[in-house]
């Protein structure tokens, strides 16, 4: 089923026992899964199984249960791997036969998810929706609606600036809208430049990785500053990245596995998540303390107003940070 068809049915209040969302837009996959779950039941009745938490046994147990708070029991599954047909058919059949339970699959990544469509048919009162890359006007409309929902005062041309800054990645743009809402002030392109980091000539995550591995970042720093990234804002971004690695490192030590949504609070491509996890485990707890302390001191120095050339001093200090 196409997105537009599903939207019409959803507005009419038509529901299914099993849902399957997949395709090219991670933001839409996650958004539709969450939206359908919230529509079908309140929070207490939604059981969530994300990535490594998902297995056939636990899912069957959840579908077999009855809700304690209402007549509907929802199992929301977010995964990046294809579910074997035999297991998938069993879960869809269970949701169909148990009138109190419904299951929602949100599948991310490049897996062979299209072959899963055959398990979602009218016979079992189930539906699949495949999302295709959005047209630019559709993405801008979604951004506009999200900004209104967040109560943001932002002009359409500034929204377009944010979207273009992220190379038209809707999920990243919406993530930044949520961050900008905390400022409680009118948002302009200047604010976006100071508070957000796009994917222009320099890939920020690749730059961070090179920085922490002691590789040559002279050209990256030059390009970032040429693009208008403020030195203070870049220190803040580096600190946030190091803190994120610290959270990953700590989570892996405590739980022994990587749960993207628990750590980040939003979905990330699996390759990026794995790359950051591999980087995080290279460091000890004391390494993170030293890095964050260094960056905090650098931030104070940059804001002191005593530096003759902030640009030169900033680059020199980053080289010391690497050592």
What does this entry look like structurally?
This protein is of the alpha/beta class and 323 residues long. It folds into 3 domains: 3-131, P-loop containing nucleotide triphosphate hydrolases (Rossmann fold, 3-Layer(aba) Sandwich); 134-199; 201-323, Zinc Finger, Delta Prime, domain 3. It has helices spanning 3-12, 26-40, 56-64, 85-97, 136-149, 156-165, 170-181, 189-195, 204-212, 218-226, 231-255, 260-264, 270-280, 285-303, 310-322, and strands at residues 18-23, 46-50, 73-79, 101-107, 126-131. Strands 2-3-4-1-5 form a 5-stranded parallel β-sheet, sandwiched between helices. Strand 3, helix 4 (85-97) and strand 4 form a beta-alpha-beta unit. Helix 3 runs parallel beside helix 4, helix 11 crosses helix 13 and helix 14 runs antiparallel to helix 15 (310-322). The longest helix has 25 residues, at 231-255. The N and C termini lie far apart (55 Å).
